[in-house]
Amino acid sequence: MVVDAGHQSRTAELYSDTISLVALATIAVALRFVSRKMAGSKLWWDDWILVFALIFDYGLSASYWLQVKYGGLGLHTTAYGGPVARDGIYMFYKIFLPLEIFYFASATAIKTSLILSYYRIFWIVRWFKWECLAAWIIVVLYFIVDILVGALECSPVPFFWDKSIAGGTCIDQDQFYRWNGVANLLIDFMVLTLTLPLIWRLKLKARQKLSISGVFLLGTFACSASIIRVTTFDQVNFEDVTWTMVDVSIWSTIEQSLGIICACLITYQPLLSRTLSLFRRSNDTSEVERNPSQGTEMARLETKPNQKPSNNVSTAGFARLDEGNDIEGTVTTYVTADWKENPMVLPKAITKSQTIEQYHQPLG
After folding, report:
1. Which domain holds residue 157?
2. Cα(272)–Cα(211) distance, rounded to whole angstroms?
3. pLDDT of residue 49 exceeding 70
């Protein structure tokens, strides 16, 4: 069956996908703040910069909504039997310029937040602080280059949206967007793998190293979205750009929103621990109601004298610190214990009852 291009539309898909994705990213950031509060941790730069990443993600999605409303995104151009004429294409490209800035800013803020999170956790290792700084410089240079090339890709600049200007020229836009996506992907992998050499130098069992590495590699889900986004550029036809850019737009939003979500996952341990604890208590209460004699026995066990909670790493997988502590304290304990034998770091060691923030507080 032949479909009339004039009646084809993907605008509803664009609205639903972008709205749901930014909503999930917003929930993820909110849960991050809740979890940090449960851990008794003070909010730091990595938390606030991720809020900026979320704001930029909102700007990215809002730009797509403006393109849908005024630029015909999700519809065919008149060259392919659709309703989007010259004026619509004009507005599409005019909105596309700030859209690029929101995309680059969101990607940079997410990477910066991750690097600062690593710094927060592994700050005691001096050489790693320099690695974080070098990685952040690469991220900032990526942002500066992208902004300059994106803003000046056409000469004069208005030629980007108004192709009627005589003598105007542009760089190969298709190649720029494609290779920018590849560069973004490579930098993502660099940031995500930044902690792995340090983790695998710790004196831990392989299972524990794999567990910790897995936590820090959760961002690979966002990298998968980046890979798919790069492949969607093969579909772009600039003669029908308002239709063929739909998949690129959707996967750009998926990439940024998923990046924000993955950056938050590392902080969820206190929230998950509290939720599981409440769930277990609820189950225990139900069991006691069904079997009162078992409840009496449980109470007797709980009040058994001289009984201390286990802190056995071999059974827990992660060494537990104080109740509700997050991955920061866990990994820092490992790092401190390992580097304590090697005087290449600060002489003061964090104790198992301290959080990162308590370590920084002066003794009074």
Report:
1. 5-270
2. 16
3. yes
Cβ-based neighbours of 120, under 8 Å, separated by 6 or more:
44, 46, 328, 356
**321 inside domain:** no
Q: Is residue 289 part of a domain?
A: no
Q: How many folded domains does the chain comprise?
A: 1
CATH classification at residue 40: 1.20.1070
Per the CB < 8 A criterion, the answer to whether 257 and 21 are in contact is yes
Domain membership flag for residue 172: yes
Residue 71 structure tokens: 């630029």
- Distance, CA of 61 to CA of 50 (rounded, Å): 16
Longest dimension (CA), the chain: 90
pLDDT tens, residue by residue, 107-122: 999 999 999 988 888 8
Of 244, 248, 246, 226, which is closest to residue 236 (Cα–Cα)? 244
Which of these, 327, 135, 140, lies nearest to 218 by C-alpha position? 327
Question: Alpha carbon of 349 to those of 14, 117, 164, 200, 233: distances in Å?
Answer: 52, 20, 67, 20, 51
Length of the chain: 364
What pTM did the predictor assign?
0.75
pLDDT in tens, 287-327: 545 665 544 443 443 334 444 433 333 333 333 333 334 55
Q: Which segment, 87-96, 115-124, 279-288, is predicted with the most confidence on average?
A: 87-96
CB 75 within 8 A of CB 8: yes
Stretch among 115-119, 170-174, 250-254, 326-330 having the lowest mean pLDDT: 326-330
Identity of the residue numbered 164: S
In a domain, 43, yes or no: yes
